[in-house]
C-alpha cells in the first residue's frame, strides 16, 4: 500500500505546526521540519493497514527477490513502524537498510572489513548494532545523516538540541567495540542500548556496558566450590569438564535474564547484574546452536547439533522452562540454519540447511504439526526472519539474495462496492418488509446532523503497536520473597533498576529513518523558480 503522492516543492514553504512534544511551534520556512513532517505522515499512512483477521497467517510463495550480498537480516520488531525496515548485513561488510514497502535501499552503512555475523535493532529503532568477523561491533545512530543540512528535525529535538544542524558533518557510527576474537552475534539489551551481549567464535559470551563505570565482563558458568573439589587422581581435567562452554546467548525479551546455550546441550539462565547462574536445564545431548524467543517472551525455541528444533514454554513468573515439542526431519536429517517464531507466536519457523535447496519449514506451535514447507530456488538458505505483524518471511540464500515470502490474497471485487457481496452460488433473496418503504426526510436529516456533529479524532495515533514485554515486578512481603515467584520478581526489579540507570537517547517510540528528499535526480538539481 503506497502513501499519498507529494507534489515537489518549488517555492519557500510557509507553514506553522507544533511538533507534539515541544511547546514552541515550528514556524516559517523551516524546510527540514517540513520534510520531517511529510515523512512522518507518509510513512504512518503506509503502515496503518487493516489486516484481515481471517486471512492465512503464514506465507506460501515468493513475492520478490532483492539483489544483495547479504549474510543476515532482521526486521525492526517494535514501534508504530514495526516491520517497515529490513536491515541486512553483507559478506563485504556493508549494511543495507531496505524499505519493505517500496523495496528500495534507504540507507547504506559502511564500517566493517569482513562479513557481518548478526544485526540487532534497539527498542525504538534509532540504533542498529552490527557484529562482524573482523572482531568488532558497531553501534549506528540512524537519526544522523551524512549531510547535516539534510537532517530533518524530529519531535525529540529542541531549539537548543545538540543534534541541530552544525558545520561539522556528524557520523552515523556512534560506537565501535573491539574484541579479541571474531564476533558471531551480538544484541542490545531490550531496555538500554548501552548494554550489549556479544557471543564470540571462541565460545565466549561477553557483556559490554558502555555507561560510565562499566566495561567488559565475560559471562561464564561458575561451578559451586563443593562441586569443584576433585581427587588428586582426577586432576584438573575433571574440574574443567564440569564447566559449561557457552555457544550462544540472548537476552530475554523483557531483559531480566540471559539465556545461554552450551556445547553440552545445557541451557543456562544468568542474572545480568551479577553474571551468576540462576538455573540450568538439560535440553539436548548435543551442542545448542541457536536460540530465539517469541514476541511476548513466553515461548522459547532452540536448535541443536542433533538436527532437532525444540520448543519450550517459559514461566512468566519464575522463568522456568517446560519442553513442549520437538521438530525433526527424520527422513533427510535436515540441519537448521535459523529458527524463530511468527509475529503472533502461533507458528515456529525453521530454515533448512540443505546445500541445493532453499526450504523454510513452518510448524503449528500449539499442535506441533507441520503446516507448510516453503520451497525456494536451488540455493542453500543462510538466514531468515519473520515479519513482526504480517505473514511475511525474509530469507537469504548463499549467493546473498534476499527472498521475501508472502501470502497470496484473492481479489475481493466486492470491496469496491461495500453494499454488495460475492456469492458462490445462486441465493434466493428474501425482501425485508420495510426495505423499500419511503423514509421520513426529517428523520434522515436528523441522523445526518448527528453524524456530522460527531468529532472524529484523526490525530491520536493507534496505540496498539508491537512493544517489548515488560518483566513481572510486584511488591512482595518478607514471607512471599522466600518463594520462587518472589525471588524471581525481586530479581526482575533489580535488573530493571540496573538497566534503567543512565538510559540511552532512544526514547521516541515513533522514530523513523529520515530520507534524503533533496537528492539530485539524474545528476541535476532544480532550484525551483
UniProtKB/TrEMBL annotation:
InterPro entries: RBBP5/Swd1, WD40/YVTN_repeat-like_dom_sf, WD40_repeat_CS, WD40_repeat_dom_sf, WD40_rpt. It comes from the Eukaryota. It is found in: Nucleus. The keyword Repeat applies. Keywords: Nucleus, Repeat, WD repeat. Its main location: nucleus. GO terms for cellular component: Set1C/COMPASS complex. Pfam families: WD40 (PF00400). WD repeats lie at residues 83-108, 109-143. The keyword Amino-acid biosynthesis does not apply. Residues 459-487 are annotated as: Disordered. Gene3D superfamilies: YVTN repeat-like/Quinoprotein amine dehydrogenase (2.130.10.10). PANTHER family: RETINOBLASTOMA-BINDING PROTEIN 5. This is WD40-repeat-containing domain protein. It comes from Kockovaella imperatae.
Amino acid at each position: 500500500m503506497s502513501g499519498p503522492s507529494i507534489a515537489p516543492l518549488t517555492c519557500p514553504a510557509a507553514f506553522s505546526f507544533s511538533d507534539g512534544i515541544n511547546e514552541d511551534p515550528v514556524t516559517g520556512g523551516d524546510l527540514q521540519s517540513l520534510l520531517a513532517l511529510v515523512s512522518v505522515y507518509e510513512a504512518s499512512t503506509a503502515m496503518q493497514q487493516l489486516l484481515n483477521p481471517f486471512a492465512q497467517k503464514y506465507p506460501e510463495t515468493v513475492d520478490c527477490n532483492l539483489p544483495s550480498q547479504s549474510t543476515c537480516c532482521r526486521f525492526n520488531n517494535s514501534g508504530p513502524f514495526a516491520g517497515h525496515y529490513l536491515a541486512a548485513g553483507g559478506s563485504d561488510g556493508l549494511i543495507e537498510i531496505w524499505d519493505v514497502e517500496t523495496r528500495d535501499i534507504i540507507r547504506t552503512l559502511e564500517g566493517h572489513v569482513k562479513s557481518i555475523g548478526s544485526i540487532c535493532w534497539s527498542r525504538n529503532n534509532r540504533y542498529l548494532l552490527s557484529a562482524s568477523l573482523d572482531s568488532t561491533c558497531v553501534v549506528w545512530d540512524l537519526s544522523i545523516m551524512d549531510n547535516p543540512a539534510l537532517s530533518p528535525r524530529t519531535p525529540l529535538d529542541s531549539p537548543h538540541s545538540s543534534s541541530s544542524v552544525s558545520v561539522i558533518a556528524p557520523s552515523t557510527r556512534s560506537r565501535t567495540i573491539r574484541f579479541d576474537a571474531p564476533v558471531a552475534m551480538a544484541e542490545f539489551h531490550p531496555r538500554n542500548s548501552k548494554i550489549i551481549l556479544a557471543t564470540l567464535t571462541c565460545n565466549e559470551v561477553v557483556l559490554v556496558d558502555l555507561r560510565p563505570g562499566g566495561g567488559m565482563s565475560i559471562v561464564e558458568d561458575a561451578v559451586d566450590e563443593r562441586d569443584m573439589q576433585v581427587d588428586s587422581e582426577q586432576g584438573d581435567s575433571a574440574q574443567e569438564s564440569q564447566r559449561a562452554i557457552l555457544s550462544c546467548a540472548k537476552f530475554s525479551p523483557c531483559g531480566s535474564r540471559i539465556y545461554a546455550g552450551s556445547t553440552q546441550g545445557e541451557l543456562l539462565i544468568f542474572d545480568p547484574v551479577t553474571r551468576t547462574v540462576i538455573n540450568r536445564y538439560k535440553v539436548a545431548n548435543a551442542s545448542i546452536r541457536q536460540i530465539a524467543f517469541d514476541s511476548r517472551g513466553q515461548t522459547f525455541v532452540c536448535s541443536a547439533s542433533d538436527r532437532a528444533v525444540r520448543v519450550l514454554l517459559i514461566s512468566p513468573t519464575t522463568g522456568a522452562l517446560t519442553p513442549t515439542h520437538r521438530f525433526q526431519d527424520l527422513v533427510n536429517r535436515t540441519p537448521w540454519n535459523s529458527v524463530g517464531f511468527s509475529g503472533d507466536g502461533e507458528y515456529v519457523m525453521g530454515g533448512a540447511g540443505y546445500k541445493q535447496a532453499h526450504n523454510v519449514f513452518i510448524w503449528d506451535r500449539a499442535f506441533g504439526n507441520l503446516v507448510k514447507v516453503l520451497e525456494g530456488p536451488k540455493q542453500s538458505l543462510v538466514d531468515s526472519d519473520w515479519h513482526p505483524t504480517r505473514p511475511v518471511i525474509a530469507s537469504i540464500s548463499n549467493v546473498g539474495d534476499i527472498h521475501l515470502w508472502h501470502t497470496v490474497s484473492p481479489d475481493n471485487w466486492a470491496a469496491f462496492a461495500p453494499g454488495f457481496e460475492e456469492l458462490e452460488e445462486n441465493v434466493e433473496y428474501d425482501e425485508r418488509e420495510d426495505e423499500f418503504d419511503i423514509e421520513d426526510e426529517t428523520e434522515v436529516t436528523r441522523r445526518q446532523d448527528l453524524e456530522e456533529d460527531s468529532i472524529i479524532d484523526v490525530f491520536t495515533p493507534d496505540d496498539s503497536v508491537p512493544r517489548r514485554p515488560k518483566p513481572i515486578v510486584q511488591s512482595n512481603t518478607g514471607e512471599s520473597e522466600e518463594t520462587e515467584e518472589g525471588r524471581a520478581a525481586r530479581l526482575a526489579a533489580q535488573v530493571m533498576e540496573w538497566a534503567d540507570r543512565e538510559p540511552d537517547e532512544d526514547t521516541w517510540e515513533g522514530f523513523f529513518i529520515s530520507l534524503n528528499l533533496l537528492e539530485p535526480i539524474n545528476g541535476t538539481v532544480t532550484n525551483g523558480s
